[in-house]
Write a structure and sequence with these properties.
rod-shaped, Helix Hairpins, 3 domains, Heat Shock Protein 90, single chain, five-stranded antiparallel beta sheet, 8 helices, 51% helix, binds adenosine-5'-diphosphate
Length: 470
């Protein structure tokens, strides 16, 4: 569980990094401190060791009565005896320098002298050569420096480094305490930072959860608009707004569709109910059946349109893409719709020039027929419909301009909406569904074309269809 949480993963990673850095820093600082202290001790031992060598040389020149250590073949001097000139004994006397001691060996490895401060168990250094210079070693709590003289005697100076080791332990404890403090402060800072970073993510997931539960009007509050999370929240908010809008349109569509279907069903029920209430004449039955038939036809039109829209929405309607001349399709549609115009004495004016484009000719015929029928239906008697087709760069353009009632400015943005009818009362009776332009729009969208409208209320409307050439 912990390892799945981003907060804990970041915190653990941050903690491990800090521990690594602190250990590296601590070990380096400890080694440096130890090296400095040991270097100091070594320098001191070097001085004493040199003094000892000096004293040996002087001793061998003076030749003390009980046998200098440099003379070969003599019996070794007794242990615990210091064979050093008196002026140098202060370096290794219990009174003057209790911490230091010196030991010398003959070239045969026999101990030839030692200070009274020397511990009893100083091992003889092996294989020391004069050219090797001074060698240092640490034995437990003592440090020793030794070297060989040109004749082959070995001289060693040493001292206890217990105080240095104690100081180093103190230094290590200090490092540990400071490192621990830095780690705690760093982890607390990291926790605070991670919490700040995580907070917007928590807010985003909480809001998303509320939206998923059905509250589509919720939005993520974006305080840090410029951060990466702020931008993510802004993108999500736009997506939620679009979803909200889509759901609202879906709800509206379902409500409108139910309402549209309820009307013909109500007509059928009320007609049959009234007719069946008592015996009727054959003419009355016929009239009722005809009313029922009209309602059923209306329902069929509606259901067909709804199904077509659903298929277009789902992208299931296969588009049979082919190259065709838009002017040819418009001419055929005019032939079909022409008689409708004559009924209302509407005059056609056409200006058709070849305009090649690509798409499903049958579906585009449906769009053109719908635009022409609307131009007649919403026209005034003895009005005019002007139809032009021309080619333009990249495609074909059709305009259908009428001299009808026009569309109010407030209605213009809604004419392509499903079930939109400017005059609901008037269009209900004549079998218009308010889905025609919505279907046209869906078909044109599927062709990557454009369908637009301009209108002057009272003077007429102009619908423009643009289709791509390829
Ligand atoms: P309908 O089946 O009601 O005609 P449409 O989708 O074809 O449905 O049209 C929707 C609405 O757009 C119509 O009810 C009408 O108010 C308006 N409209 C469409 N074409 C025209 C036009 N040529 N002139 C004026 N209004 C129009």
């Amino acid at each position: 569980m912990i390892f799945r949480s981003i907060r804990w993963r970041l915190q653990i990673w941050h903690g491990l990094m800090m521990v690594g850095v602190l250990i590296g820093f601590g070990v380096t600082a400890y080694q440096l401190e130890r090296a400095t202290r040991m270097h100091q001790v070594d320098q001191e031992l070097e001085v004493r060791q040199k003094n000892l060598r000096q004293s040996l040389r002087e001793g061998s020149r003076e030749g003390p009565p009980d046998g200098p250590p440099g003379r070969r073949g003599d019996a070794p001097p007794p242990r615990h005896e210091l064979h050093l000139p008196p002026h140098l004994s202060r370096y290794f006397s219990k009174e003057n320098s209790p911490a230091y001691y010196g030991v010398t060996w003959t070239r045969d490895g026999q101990e030839s002298g030692r200070s009274d401060t020397a511990p009893p168990d100083v091992p003889t250094p092996d294989g020391v050569r004069p050219e090797a210079g001074t060698i240092t070693r640490t034995r437990g709590t003592v440090r020793e420096a030794y070297s060989a003289t040109p004749p082959g005697e070995v001289v060693l100076a040493g001292r206890s480094i217990a105080p240095e080791l104690a100081a180093l332990r103190g230094f290590a404890l200090g490092l540990l305490a400071v490192g621990g403090g830095v780690l705690v402060i760093g982890l607390a800072g990291g926790w605070f930072l991670v919490s700040r970073v995580i907070r917007p993510i928590d807010a985003i997931s909480d809001t998303a959860a509320r939206i998923a539960a059905g509250n589509l009007s919720e939005r993520i509050r974006t305080e840090e608009a410029d951060s990466e999370l702020g931008r993510l929240a802004a993108v999500l908010n736009r997506t939620f707004a679009r979803l909200d809008d889509a759901f609202a349109r879906q709800r509206q569509f379902t409500a409108d569709a139910s309402h549209e279907l309820r009307t013909p069903v109500s007509v059928i029920l009320s007609q049959t109910q009234a007719t069946l209430a008592r015996p009727r004449s054959p003419e009355e039955y016929r009239a009722t059946l005809e009313a029922c038939q009209r309602s059923a036809q209306r329902m069929r039109r509606l259901i067909t349109s709804l199904l077509e829209l659903a298929r277009l929405d789902a992208g299931q309607d296969p588009m049979d893409r082919q190259k065709f001349d838009l002017s040819k399709i418009v001419a055929d549609a005019l032939e079909l719709v022409g008689p409708l115009g004559e009924e209302r004495s509407v005059r056609w004016t056409t200006e058709l020039s070849a305009a090649p484009c690509t798409g499903d000719a049958e579906k585009i015929t449906q769009v053109v027929t719908n635009l022409l029928t609307n131009a007649i239906h919403h026209n005034r008697d003895q009005g005019e419909v002007r139809v032009t087709v021309r080619a333009e760069e990249g495609g074909a353009v059709l305009t259908v301009a009428d001299t009808g009632v026009g569309i109010a400015e407030a209605d213009l943005p809604h004419v392509f909406r499903r079930f939109f009818r400017a005059d609901k009362a008037r269009s209900h009776g004549d079998g218009r569904t308010g889905l025609g332009l919505a279907i046209c729009q869906a078909i044109v969208d599927a062709h990557q074309g454009r369908l637009s409208v301009t209108s002057r209320p009272g003077a007429g409307s102009t619908f423009t269809l643009r289709l791509p050439a390829a």
